Amino acid sequence: MDITNQSGITIYLKANVKNIPEHEMKRLLIKDKSEAELLKFIEVNLAKRESSYNPAKIIFETEHLTSRENVSEYIDKLEVIITL
Question: What is the distance between the terminal CA atoms of the chain, rounded to a whole angstrom?
Fold first, then answer.
């Protein structure tokens, strides 16, 4: 992430396990897991990756992206940051 941060703007869309889109849950590694196994799998793997993602220059908690207005607000903020 250090090299990526030096090269440009990095953004981490930090998602709660319960907010992972259903289509993501159907990938090969997880397609045969029960709902409980799936949630545990995602939780464990997100925890493993957290230290790699946290150095991103911008982190958005995706649980706040619940409506078009919220998404538009975040896009406006990104446009300001990117043009600085």
Answer: 21
Angle at the Cα of 21 (from 16 to 27), degrees rounded to 5? 110
Q: Dig out the tokens for 14 from the structure.
A: 């930090």
pLDDT (tens digit, 9 = 90+) per residue, 34-70? 888 888 888 898 888 888 888 887 777 777 777 777 7
User: Containing domain of residue 8, as a range?
Assistant: 2-82
Rounded-to-integer distance, Cα 62 and Cα 15, Å: 5
CA distance 78 to 11: 9
Q: Which residue has 């997100």 as its token pair? A: 46
Confidence at residue 19, expressed as pLDDT on a 0 to 100 scale: 64
CA 13/CA 63 separation, integer angstroms: 10
Residue 77: which H helix or E strand, with range?
helix 68-82
Q: Which two tokens stand for residue 54?
A: 């946290």
Looking up residue 9, the CATH number of its domain turns out to be: 3.40.50.300
